[in-house]
């Protein structure tokens, strides 16, 4: 009797249809897809189906699986955020000369490996990146956190206080006007542009038309030879002298009271000087006047116990970079913030020097002297050009007087009852 029942059960199972893919997936995998992909079936991303048990896309990388639907986005993983070629090249010609493993130890954590790095760590809850996702990497001394008005603090442990953001403490500064208006990173840095190798999808003048009624906009040279953000950047974080100290025995003496969460376990990092004010100016790769700042003025020391091995504070690079501070403000500095300020073009006069890095054995006459330094994606403004732009001819005097008249009138109007 039992054999007849078993036979009938097997016969019944043989004529029933195979279970649907979703039903069979759910027998083992208790995953609930959320967000924009909530309506998709498992097989839409993982392959397989009622007649095909093999997960045909499992052998592909995450990015290639996403590409089945999101065509044209793979370029992001071949762009600068993924390859970090510029950063790797800099390390090779600087700290990498002292430690061949420096990049892997101290720099390798911030680069895009696959789609989930930006779109959520859980493949079943994929979402559009939020600002916090961008600032996982775009923080500290790198452009990103400055957009919301955060500037890096000193590295000493006693300064690790104040506003916190993304696990770090910052000085609170004026945020970018676009941030105040509610704009987020993706409004200018869209997927299409990033996949095409662009830094941004739009430029300033795609949204803003220069107003000739504004004195600065009425000067042709300003519109032809300057980036908009050369005048409209309210401030920029600047780091003069970046020191990496390696401890060969792995023991860091307690009297080095520095942050230990931004380097490899056998390293410490500190800076000679940090500023948060108007950035110096130079020329970018388009030949336009642009903010510049030290990419890194790189120094290296190696300590074994209580003894320094080799040269202390060995200078390995003195490189600057043209960049776009994300600290745009409506107003601009006054005329003499550029036209009568040689140090802002790294043409500091000897009698104006305050910091003396050469006396500290750092190999530079001044941080704001072009000697021994270079701009890797542009150039410094030379003395001849600086003197030409600083001439106080009749046009300059006229614009200068008009500017002060406007300021005086605005003060009078604001003070009137």
TrEMBL record:
Keywords: Signal. It comes from Trichloromonas acetexigens. Residues 1-20 form the signal peptide. The keyword Glycoprotein does not apply. Gene3D superfamilies: Cytochrome C3 (3.90.10.10). PANTHER family: C-TYPE POLYHEME CYTOCHROME OMCC, DISSIMILATORY SULFITE REDUCTASE SIRA. Transmembrane segments: none annotated. One of its GO terms (molecular function) is oxidoreductase activity. InterPro entries: Multihaem_cyt_sf, Multiheme_Cytochr_ET. This is Cytochrome C. Coiled coil: none annotated.
